């Protein structure tokens, strides 16, 4: 395990290096998860790319800091981690709130970004009212009180069966998440709007949607791709909000193909 102090908090991360000359790929996980959601994607890219995963503040083994957060702060954390690792011109792969963090990083530090994969995310996610309602529910009843509704958005029905041990594991990941870190990140999503900033993105972007995603439906992801000049759009069938768990081979193949294409442009 690797840790570094960034902006007053200890950040947990992992970096595996490859001497391929290709850009490093930095993965940014979703709300209520940690870097382990990329567990089945990383081996399909290892050896060919330098790979970085990390736990954003308030998640996993990283410090809580002082919630509520902003996307700008979470992007500053990531920029500092990339600087710490002496990387530049990286490919960001952001899932859900991770995609907002990726857009925030590009907006603040475009020098660090070569390209972006915006997976199951959008220029704006939800409404202020919907996020306030979720924050209130967690503050009143804890994360366990929203578990079933969240899992219905995260995974398709075939994945959400009692005999699937992985499903129970991801339920555990969510309910063991810091409630303050969770609601603090909900506040960051609530306040984030990259509708105008998306039109100014000038690096290659791949937008990925899950066919059955209940959090960021395909039409929302497509609307983001339509805002970004030249963005590609792909949909993964038979998955919901976290395709890197339900279809890691497909997700990894899309990322690989996109990054390899950068070498040809």
Automatic annotation (TrEMBL):
Name the InterPro entries for this protein: AB_hydrolase_1 (IPR000073), AB_hydrolase_fold (IPR029058), AB_hydrolase_sf (IPR050266), PcaD/CatD (IPR026968)
Keywords of the record, alphabetical order, are: Hydrolase
Q: Name one GO biological process term.
A: beta-ketoadipate pathway
Q: Does the keyword Hydrolase apply?
A: yes
Q: Name one Pfam family in it.
A: Abhydrolase_6
Q: What is its EC number?
A: 3.1.1.24
Q: Which GO terms describe its molecular function?
A: 3-oxoadipate enol-lactonase activity
Q: Which residues form the AB hydrolase-1 domain?
A: 25-250
**What PANTHER family is this protein classified in?**
MONOACYLGLYCEROL LIPASE
UniProt protein name: 3-oxoadipate enol-lactonase
Organism expressing this protein natively: Neorhizobium lilium
